[in-house]
Fold this sequence. Notes:
- By secondary structure, this protein is α/β, with parallel strands linked by helices.
- It has helices spanning 19-29, 36-44, 51-58, 71-80, 82-109, 127-130, 143-154, 158-167, 171-177, 189-201; strands at residues 7-12, 32-35, 114-118, 135-140, 180-183.
- It has a five-stranded parallel beta sheet, sandwiched between helices.
- The mean pLDDT is 96.
- Adenosine-5'-diphosphate is lined by residues 13, 15-21, 149, 153, 184, 187-189, 192.
Amino acid sequence: MVHQRIWRLGLTGGIGSGKSTVAGFWAQRGATVIDADAISRQLTGPSGRALEAIAQTFGPHMIGPDGAMDRQAMRTRVFQDPFAKRQLEGIIHPLVSLITAEQTHAAIEQGQHCLVFDVPLLVESGERWRRQVDRVVVVDCDQDTQRQRVMKRSGLSEPEVDRIIAQQAQRLERLACADIVIVNQGLDFDELSTQVAQLAADFGL
Ligand code: ADP
């Protein structure tokens, strides 16, 4: 039997680009999708693996009555203190890497050869995610399309959406990091799905 190459793809895109939709299409083609944000939320959710270190570093009051990190208290803390932000990242990032590695290992054990890491802030993370993936796949559309989609989905106002977009990497910066671009504009879900299927074929799916 020919040994199949294992691919690790980093999937990213600005808010409203359609990254989650595209991740779903990769899963439909048979890839294992590993959701970095979901891992991060679980780490700080009830009984999460980061809670002990968070309580030790920031104090037990950072854990709410539901047994999860008090997100509002932590937001206030890191907003006031940039060092606290780095301390929190110092707890969360290695655990995300550990759990990602565990999930990757489990998928490979089951015969998977194509892993898609869904990472909204891949470009913003600098080298951290880029060194863990073989290819960076960017889902791209223009800012007006992003804005319209997010407003429709969330009910946020235009300035609120623009603020989020401005906090993320800008379109050209993201495209500069891309090995592969999935264009998600001026096409319907079927056409988008076909685009993913064609690409997935290049990665053995
Ligand atoms: P992201 O994960 O990048 O924020 P989503 O995949 O959640 O984006 O897509 C944002 C919204 O836009 C969703 O409501 C989704 O259904 C819609 N959407 C994505 N791609 C298209 C498309 N090609 N045509 C129409 N709506 C789309």
